[in-house]
Amino acid sequence: MELKNYRFPPRYGPEWGSGGIFGLKYYNGVLYYTLAFEAEAHFVRDGEEKTYDFTLVGEGPTSGGDTYNAVTGVDEFIYFGGWVHAPAVYKNRTISFVNKYSHVHVYDTENDSIRLLWKDSIHHETDWAGEISDIIYDPYGDRLLLAREDGHANLGVYSLDRRTGRAEELIGDPSPKGTLVHDVAFFGIGNNFTEGLRELRALDLITGKWNTFKPGSSVDGRPYIKAELGAMASAYNRVFAFVRGGLFAGNPLMGEDLTFFRLFDFCTFYAPFRVNAINVGGGILTAFNAYHDAAYLPSDEFNWITTNTVAGPSVLVYIAPPMVKIVGAFGARITSIEKVDGKILLGTNTAPNTGATEATPFDTGNRDIVVLDEKILQDRPPAVSFSIPLALPSMARNFGAGTFGGIPLYGYTEPRAVFYASSDNKLTVYEYDLSLPPSGAYAETFELRRGKNVLDLSSFSGIVSFELEKEDMKGKVRIELR
Questions:
Q1: Residue numbers of the domain that contains 24
Q2: Which of 205, 259, 338, 428 is the right S-S partner for 24, CB 3.0 to 4.6 Å?
Q3: 181-213, pLDDT tens digit by residue?
Q4: Of 279, 298, 256, 282, which is closest to residue 436 (Cα–Cα)?
């Protein structure tokens, strides 16, 4: 796959901070992706590249496009969705949403043509109709299922006729993502910016009936909070819902609860957010991002600290239960993942989305496409380091949490955690893996003395998380994997 354009510096695209490269999809000999916030859909075939500016939605200049990877391929068609300003209106560090539309387009790979299948807008100055954050094809009903969570109206799961463009609301609760498991479509339910994942709804594609399931307890036995949903995938007849702080895995329809497995929980906004998950080699490949959304101006001190604390690099993670393996370490964020001809393609970005009065008239990130050999799945994992102020898990106690970590040790021979404690304390280490069905965790407690404490993690296996007995507002920990 020859890519003529693979690096994108800041260019015109009024919105909040930076968008990215989204919707990477290789289908029927065509590589599609959307560049946001420039609102450019790119189609690459045989080294030739074509771009589309979303002006079938409305007048230019446009901005936006997609920031959740809403794309699927059916027959000879690539269906891609998201949202777009047409035209974009920028003023006084804000964006007017009067011209903001949610959309689904269809690209015919056989005759190289684009058609607007559906659009929706509430034409409001500050509010908008729910963006399209996922597109799931229903093979039984031959329709598209649309997930909509980011917005103020017309949220939920919609059915879209892929021939007529007629949309029908199936449920009205906000839903950011979905996935097919057996003959059922699972959708995560909940507002990501207020509550996180509240429940999962399962649509029986044959009968049309819905079931509702609540997320279960954590495998390490400790609480989790505000699990914002970033990506979903299926394998092993289970649903995998990747959230801030870890993932839920299981299938209540086959008698297995949705268990929370803590992964990369640093009590920050480090999360598998604004990225997709793909199936590779029978497993699942996704990313946990260091810097996907952030507050630019520190008006809310707690919000600024939690979103702007860079606890570690973004990591590319391969899920093959009971194993969770780090297979790559990258910068601020990975925005899209696809497999092409034995290669793994990653859309990446140096800057996050921002919000409220933090809009700019141009995209603020440097974005590029990284090409990796898929043998990284079998290689030794890269050296990675995480650094966490202990004040963050200490503050999380106020919300009923405080356990942190969820660090996969697979492939590392010399992992260690260096604690710089401001006072004597006790540390509990929980050891577990991604066994399905879950097999629980083993706990071991260590004494921490004021000052530097080096904990050798090579005696542990699988995944480890940590919990302090007492809060420590001045200490920190550095976790080194090598």
A1: 7-377
A2: 338
A3: 999 999 999 999 889 999 999 999 999 999 999
A4: 256
